[in-house]
Amino acid sequence: MERCWAEDMTERPDFSQIKMFIRKFNKEGSTSILDNLLSRMEQYANNLEKLVEERTQAYLEEKRKAENLLYQILPHSVAEQLKRGETVQAEAFDSVTIYFSDIVGFTSMSAESTPMQVVTLLNDLYTCFDAIIDNYDVYKVETIGDAYMVVSGLPVRNGKLHAREVARMSLALLEAVKMFKIRHRQNDQLRLRIGIHTGKSHH
């Protein structure tokens, strides 16, 4: 029994070994109170092990969801630095191109629509936009209401290609808007207002 409190945990016997040792010295057989106690302890240990496994799996699943969210809202390189516990330092970029757009008349359209209709409209539109920009060397910075902001040449430098990538992407978005259907206003045609600028940036 002295092995049960050994400082080195690897030298301690497990429940099955303890049960075997005690039964060896117990004359009353398997129906004794001690046997019942050992059986309950063994069952408790098994249940505890199962609970720990379930909690571990739940933790890993939540961790995976958190990491996926991190990669969705931040550039991959920044997310990797944060995962490693590193401080993200500001970086200067000599030349990038920024795209910014909004919907013409969105405020008045929203006033004439229900909140759910507005949410559905933006979700449909940005789902369409997101699928298009995946074909270009650009990074979506953020969306605020009907505003859509994209950049090229940052966080991954692409030489002098950033202006071309944003220009081509813009033309593709304009074409998509022409075909876009508003669920609750089928006869209305969306119009996209776009601004593009090239210059230095700090990230």
From TrEMBL:
Its main location: membrane. Pfam families: Guanylate_cyc (PF00211), HNOBA (PF07701). SUPFAM superfamilies: Nucleotide cyclase. The keyword Hydrolase does not apply. GO terms for cellular component: plasma membrane. Its EC number is 4.6.1.2. It is found in: Membrane. Residues 34-61 form a coiled coil. SMART domains: CYCc (SM00044). Signal peptide: none annotated. Transmembrane segments: none annotated. Keywords: cGMP biosynthesis, Coiled coil, Lyase, Membrane, Nucleotide-binding, Signal, Transmembrane, Transmembrane helix. It is a single-pass type I membrane protein. Residues 97-199 form the Guanylate cyclase domain. GO terms for molecular function: adenylate cyclase activity; guanylate cyclase activity; natriuretic peptide receptor activity; nucleotide binding; peptide hormone binding. This is guanylate cyclase.
